[in-house]
């Protein structure tokens, strides 16, 4: 079975642990981190959308647009604990110059916006490092499906943590390397991704830094923007577990250890005009009122996003926090890395790219802390989950058999 953040989130009772270097007899189907749909027929097949890599030239354009970020907090934290909390920081982007012209030598099937942002002089504003904002409310407990984070990262926890050598092995197929240091993001582009996958994936991470200023820990990761997973669990048993690469991507399955991350289209997919979730949700609400459910054709429509609820953003935040805790080295700025911020991307965007970035931009910081991660599943809980899943799968197979006879 394929798991993809673009496809579905299975209910906890339908999930089971993965094979490989995970704990014995605790198999599960790892799930996605950001999708809303449950497509029962897809449980039996491999649903992987086509992806690919492009390649670009090294032409260095001229001076970039100058961007200005406004991040203000209108009052200091009151000494009186009973006083109302200070207003949350708000953000805006102002570009003082138009985007640079597109270089015709750069292939059109990769993100020229990201190319300009990474190959031009830095445009990120010189502002103090963001400081943590004290939560104004008691942290809630994360939803139960957050507990699968423990399982997804268990192979590296069992190996004693993530070493720089492990991270280096993930470079073989990665499209970019991302480092977060003191709330700032640095990106090294290793290989251009297909279309704007890398652009909007990085954009989504930048929105996380805005939503939780100063609360995303220092971390370093490799990201592969191709759909199909490549880190085979059976290749990293025993002594080979010490070189197991922690590689992020959008999809995974039972035979692989790739760490699943939300699909880039949650923040927009301009090539096929899939809007960011907030705008798409409004369109869906309007469409739902046009035809009654009983009068509809039997077809399913799906879409998902980490912004559909607060706990989706917390899921991404908690995954980053857990990865940071496993690092056995201190993250450092890549020698060829470039600081990336919302300004450097949005001010080079044009057309749908720019509009989708503006529509999905976080306008203010979250005034509450992330939720608290529940403990891992016990062996008994895993056994019950597996039994429920097997029962559900048999039920779906029965439905399919009946449908094929009609």
TrEMBL record:
Pfam families: Glyco_transf_90. Residues 215-396 form the Glycosyl transferase CAP10 domain. It comes from the Eukaryota. Residues 19-31 have a biased composition (Basic residues). Residues 37-50 have a biased composition (Basic and acidic residues). Residues 1-91 are annotated as: Disordered. Transmembrane segments: none annotated. InterPro entries: CAP10, O-Glucosyltr/Glycosyltrsf_90. SMART domains: CAP10. PANTHER family: KDEL LYS-ASP-GLU-LEU CONTAINING - RELATED, OS02G0642700 PROTEIN. This is Glycosyl transferase CAP10 domain-containing protein.
